[in-house]
Amino acid sequence: MLGLNKRDTKFLIIVILLTAFTPFLMQPFPEGSAMAQFNGGYPDLMQRVAIFGIFAIGFNILFGLTGYLSFGHAAFLGVGSYSAVWMMKLLSMNIIPGIILAMIMSGLFALLIGWISLRRSGIYFSILTLAFAQMSYNLAYSVLTPLTNGETGLQIRPNDPRILDGDTASPYTNLFGLDMSASYKWEVFGHQFTFNTGFYVCAVIAVIAFYISLRIFRSPFGMMLRAVKSNQQRMSYTGLNPRPYTLAAFVISGMYAGLAGGLLASMDPLAGAERMQWTVGGEVVIMTILGGAGTLLGPVLGAGAIKYLENIFSKINDTVLHGWFSALPDGMEDFLVTIIHPFVGKGWHLTLGLLFMLVVTFLPGGLVEGGKRIMGLFKRKPKGDGDDPEHHPQSTPHVAE
Fold this sequence. Notes:
Blueprint: H1 6-20, H2 22-25, H3 43-66, H4 74-90, H5 95-117, H6 122-143, H7 145-148, E1 154-155, E2 174-175, E3 178-179, E4 183-188, E5 191-196, H8 197-218, H9 220-237, H10 243-267, E6 270-271, H11 278-291, H12 298-313, H13 318-324, H14 330-340, H15 348-362, H16 366-378
Antiparallel strand pairs: 1-6, 2-3, 4-5
């Protein structure tokens, strides 16, 4: 189906089902319960998980397949956001023109940066991409103020021309009249689930982006990218020039980032220079490594984990902590609050850092490797497994797993 073998088709169907039932999966606890603090089934978080999942999928095509570590992908995210907002100001509040322009402009910008940066490899390539990202941030923040509106950010105004919209057109971001912010709630046995139009638009695009990355992983082009990562020098000795392949991967990855930036603008029609900061570029690196670089599902899992932790742990303040430990004696309650306080609220990055350190140390393959280890505990090995005196050839591991 769709050019995939039977195993990949099952894999894609599982991803589609998980995406479709995200509102249920991220809202496991009833409203008003003690555990409701850890629910994440509200539109803003679900949309961000889908959007940053796209961002991480695209980054994984470059880093996971070729081994080229870029710290500058935030620049393409920002270019995509600015391009989409300009389309909404000039043409229409329909998100399609904005998303298309976001991908085109980010792709062209990635072509320019990649053409220069890919003349070097290793740490020198990473530093070059970081330098370009910081230059882009400073240009957007101060030099290109007529285009970016500087520190205030580019935003929609009532007097914008929007030449494709009529008098009756929606003043909000929409998909052919379907309001992106529209949502409805469904309550079942004390659980309240929110179904948001914007999330499902982002989710459908994320599934398409995932399918394209799956085809890239399985294609001869993907095999060439893995050859670049494995031994670029040996590849050159065979007469193949690796640079066109790495440049193509860089541009594709940049277009994914631009798509994510366009969707961010569609969710909230405001583009600011902060989306180009190096911290955003570092965040997608952490997402990919945390989930499992070089795997298909890993970057999506990493993006979901980080955005969930960011939204949940950042809301836990001292008042919430005192509520949790109120049944304990005062001295013990204050002691526990003092110990936990640095890891939540504004200090949630410390928790993220510790989690990242543990994963890199004990699970180099990320969350995907952790899932495989857990599944391995429940699998019964066949009798005589490992006894192969004739040394028969083994099957090739599945890249998606």
